[in-house]
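Please predict the structure of the following assembly.
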Amino acid sequence: MDTWTFGWTVAIIGMGGTMFVLWLLSLVILLLKKLFPYKAKTSAPLKG
Amino acid sequence: METAIASGLQGLLLGFSHFEIGQALMILIGSLLLYLGIAKGFEPLLLLPIGFGAILVNIPLAGLMEEGGVLRFFYDTGVLTEIFPILIFVGIGAMTDFQPLLENPKIIMLGAAGQFGIFLTLLLALALGFDKLEAVAIGIIGACDGPTAIYVSSKFAPHLLGAVSVAAYSYMSLVPLIQPPIMRLLTTEKEKKIVMGAVKQPVSKTTKILFPVVVTVTASLVAPLGTPLIGMVMLGNLMKESGAVERLKHASENEITNIVTLLLGLSIGATMQADKFLRVETLLVLGLGLIAIGLDTAVGVLFGKLMCLLTGGKINPLIGAAGISAFPMSARVVQAEGQRYNKKSYLLMPAMSANAAGQIGSIIAAAVMLSVLKGMGIV
């Protein structure tokens, strides 16, 4: 494989692949947040 | 008796008689690294042992990098086997808080754009005549992440390890000088003044604990050769977020990282022998490293402009510059630049999100590159 075919292939797939994986991770984060939403701690009511 | 005394005294002069100009120059370069680390505060944890290692290895006849030499032992066992950078990744994971990213995951794409300098610099290195694997090692300076740069260069171009590491750590500490001119050049007055609304979405502990596990599996399936990088960072982060192994977390971010940083720095310095370092290609590597970080910043800001356009002006493109791995320095640079043009603009939190994305992005970019090389049969 010649130098430029190598260079452009690594550059294009590399940039595209990095974008793709990070996009995938953003979806994963959104999914995790949907499945396990934050619940604010509520203080127990005072018994009088 | 006199002959014995003369021979003994001659032994004391051997160092001087074998001292060459190149070694003297390298001792000066080592001293410069010490100065930058100690007096200027540029990444002292690494530049100090690197500088001292460079001085040690250029002492004639000391034999520290010869078979059986102490620095050669550190280098062979820790750098050639990739153990040192891998252990540092565990410490980085244990120290990193991904909360800003988890709170604002839409910003994650800036962490990808901030890595484009890696690939563009690879093309530049090829144009300058470096071979394929050397170009990969030079491009990775654009990850703006020392351990990643060391991991990749020790794997593919160990003869460039010294130059690549010095470039990576020096430019990381120069981010406050490198980034602002590029940010100013690529944004309009109106864009610089955009005030971003606060995005504060609290994250559950379960999400924080599952994040490193899910990231490891997802990213490693796409880029299996990067599993050592991704896996170790995420292992460290899991120890931090789980709260269940406080001792291991503490050891990872302190004792292990400190010891390994010392040995790694010395080992890198030990590769800076005069005959291997004083070459035109070293200057080219240093120049290309600077360009790589400049390109990261430029593409990050341009991607920020695109996001600004797509969101109807809700995103300040300056935060794109924080999509690199220099955490939290780059986020602080963005905050300072935003404040310079609009006192009501507080970009620190979104910039921290982009910066955390840049930390993951740099590792993912290296992982993707390793897997592409494997797929192409280059490695």
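DSSP finds one helix and no strands in chain A. The mean pLDDT of chain A is 89.
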